[in-house]
User: Which sequence fits this backbone?
């Protein structure tokens, strides 16, 4: 069968019933594709997007469920850990000096230094530094003594019943023949922020 292009000449939309079979077939295919495309765009594409969103939400909900299931399955363990953490926090809070104990801390540091064989040049409080849950109380310290005395001093400060940290060590040799050293450092103690609000 030979294709005759002349059969598509002079086709009128008012007289579709008289069109040749090949023209009717092409029109039917064009209309079917157009209807299918418009139907897909109007109805199915939104449904596919909703389905994709539902799949993504399902994955998120499954992960949330796994997490919550893990927590609920280990609830007793989590409660025990929470109690232990609260106890540890309470112990740490007791290690922070109260505002009425802070002046005694200077006495403790002085005692620790003198029993370690050091002579104090300077021991002075610096302005308080407020942090999120605690207040930092820095103390500038300058002492003179031997290297081993410095080690004993720092060790004894670490053994104090209250939390005291040491920072910014600077050691220099004094200008004498005894091998005396000069140590400058900053000790910091901390106070719980809520104590201020009381």
Assistant:
């Amino acid at each position: 069968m030979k294709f005759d292009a002349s059969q598509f000449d002079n086709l009128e939309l008012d007289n579709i019933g008289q069109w040749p079979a090949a023209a009717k077939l092409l029109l039917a295919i064009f209309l079917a594709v157009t209807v299918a495309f418009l139907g897909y765009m109007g109805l199915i594409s939104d449904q596919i997007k909703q389905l994709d969103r539902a799949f993504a939400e399902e994955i998120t909900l499954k992960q949330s469920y796994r997490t919550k299931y893990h927590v609920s399955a280990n609830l007793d363990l989590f409660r025990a850990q929470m109690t232990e953490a609260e106890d540890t926090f309470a112990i740490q809070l007791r290690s922070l000096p109260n505002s009425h104990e802070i002046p005694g801390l200077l006495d403790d540091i002085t005692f620790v230094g003198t029993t370690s064989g050091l002579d104090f040049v300077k021991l002075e409080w610096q302005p308080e530094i407020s942090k999120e849950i605690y207040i930092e109380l820095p103390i500038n310290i300058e002492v003179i003594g031997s290297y081993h005395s410095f080690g004993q001093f720092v060790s004894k400060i670490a053994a104090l019943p209250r939390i005291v940290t040491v920072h910014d060590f600077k050691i220099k040799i004094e200008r004498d023949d005894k091998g005396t050293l000069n140590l400058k450092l900053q000790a910091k103690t901390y106070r719980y922020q809520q104590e201020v609000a009381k």
About this structure: Residues 40 and 104 are 82 Å apart (CA to CA). The mean pLDDT is 80. The chain has five helices and five strands. The two ends are 103 Å apart (CA to CA).
